[in-house]
Amino acid sequence: MNDFERTFVKSFNESFNESNTLALAYRLKQSRFVPQFIDVLVDSGNPDLYMGIECKSISVEKGASALYFKQHFTTDKKGIPKSKGYLSFSGKQGGGDS
């Protein structure tokens, strides 16, 4: 998964560089002992470009055919995704139904 996230971040940053867009994508530090709210953060003064991205993968070889919310997303005791907690702590607003 780390290779995918690195490639994802590199692609974002190359695109920003080519289009002279003031934005930066980076991977958030991941540690066994420190909770990670999201995998990739795109930061910019432009609120349309500010985003957090949670990367997920499934193994078709192991029989997976889809992502399932309860199985693939970590939630707190109330069932709220950790990414929503990140929004609360950072003072940001989420898209969609958040």
What can you tell me about this protein's structure?
The chain is an alpha+beta fold. The chain has one domain (2-90). It is 31% helix and 13% strand. The protein has 3 helices and 3 strands; from the N terminus they run αβββαα. The chain has helices at residues 2-18, 69-72, 82-90; strands at 23-27, 40-44, 51-53. A 3-stranded antiparallel β-sheet has the order 1-2-3. A hairpin with a 6-residue loop joins β2 (40-44) and β3 (51-53). The radius of gyration is 15 Å and the shape is globular. It starts with a helix and ends in an 8-residue tail after the last helix. The model has no long low-confidence stretch (mean pLDDT 75).
Write the layout of secondary structure elements.
Layout: H1 2-18, E1 23-27, E2 40-44, E3 51-53, H2 69-72, H3 82-90
Antiparallel strand pairs: 1-2, 2-3
Can you give keywords for this protein?
98 residues; alpha+beta; 3 helices; globular
* Rg (CA only): 15 Å
Helix and strand composition category: alpha+beta
Helix-strand pattern: HEEEHH
Quick one: how many beta strands?
A: 3
The mean pLDDT is 75
Overall tally of structural domains:
1
Please indicate the percent range of residues in DSSP E strands (runs of 2 or more): 5-15%
Between the first and last Cα atoms, what is the distance in angstroms?
26 Å
What is the number of helical segments per DSSP (H or I, 4+ residues)? Answer: 3
The spatial strand order of the largest sheet comes to: 1-2-3
Q: How is the main sheet built?
A: 3 strands, antiparallel
Helicity range = 25-40%
Question: What is the overall shape?
Answer: globular
Provide the low-confidence segments as ranges. Answer: none
